[in-house]
Amino acid sequence: MIRALLLPLLVVLLAACTRPAAERHDTQLVFGTLVDVTVYGTDEATAQRAFTQLREDFRLMHFMWHPWKPGPLGRTNELLALQAPFSANPSILPLIEKSLPLSQASDHLFNPAIGKLLDLWGFHSDEPPHGPPPDPAAIAKLVAAEPKLEDIEIHGVVMRGTNPAVKLDFGAMAKGLAIDRGIEALRILGVKNAVINAGGDLKVIGRHGDRPWRVGIRDPRGEGVLAVLDVHDGEAVFTSGDYERYFMWQGRRYHHILDPRTGYPAEGTRSVTVIHSDAATADAAATALFVAGPKRWPKIARQMGLDQVLLIDAEGGYHVTPKMQARLKYARQPERLQVRDPAAQKSQR
Ligand code: AMP
Ligand code: MG
Questions:
Q1: How far apart are CA 329 and CA 48, in angstroms?
Q2: N or C: which end of the chain has fewer CB within 10 A?
Q3: How far is the CA of 287 from the centre of ligand 1 (A)?
Q4: Which domains does the chain have, with CATH numbers?
Q5: Cα 44 to averaged position of ligand 2 atoms, centre (Å)
């Protein structure tokens, strides 16, 4: 457990090795990971104000959006299941509004309505997930019910569920939205240079003194980083990986990113990294492209408006956009690398 928490900190922010006095940190355990806020060149009083506010904001978001602990999202899920109108909790509506276009652009590969499938697989628990995998008939039944965000009617502040198979889980995007909000709060407080880093998923403001912020992308099958890159003001870098939450059963890995079309963990991908100015988009997109896999990712990337993607496939092959390729400094030159431009994809109906 301790190792799992420490790794992301080691992976990211190589800059931390030589920490000048101008750099200040605050770390909090939230969203199931260590969230580290680093500010650079900020006076002590402003830094402390920022740390206090972010602690409070993240704690609240953690409570409001938690997928299985009692709270506003749990209550919303109970009320959706009743299929009767109810007044929506104001902390949940923005999540739905933000996710709906992303889910549609991803052909519903990013689908925050599959909470019941995640329940079935045992990923809604404080305990580590474990085998055996669920009953195939139960999986097939939930997949056939096709839960999606569109099954929620919203009229002003009144909501109604229309499909009892819907259960909301924003785990694939909430961290991104929280980091966007955190960065916005830092800017308002007058912080000019900062990184908010949640276990390797991060967004930056400004620079680290006389150079840009530099981060590493974790190797999905190693202890180290597979590449480093400079990250510039307002950019977010998000990675989805099959190594984050999983169990082994009869020699197979069952991880936490489910393919909504099959109800089983998505196959063909080890990790996906996305860079985008909007952290919520980067977060949702990394999950969606993970599900899309090494063949289909450029189509989904084009639909989601992405131009910076790195996907590592199940055989260890690298798939990358031209813009991402131009800025990655690989630790080892990849043996198999395919550069594909989502913009060159034909629009398909
Ligand atoms: P991430 O690490 O951002 O890829 O998010 C993974 C989390 O998102 C999982 O732990 C689930 O809570 C949830 N999730 C898994 N599969 C999907 C999916 N296909 N669409 C939306 N959310 C998902
Ligand atoms: Mg995600």
A1: 34
A2: C
A3: 6
A4: 1-333 (3.10.520.10)
A5: 33
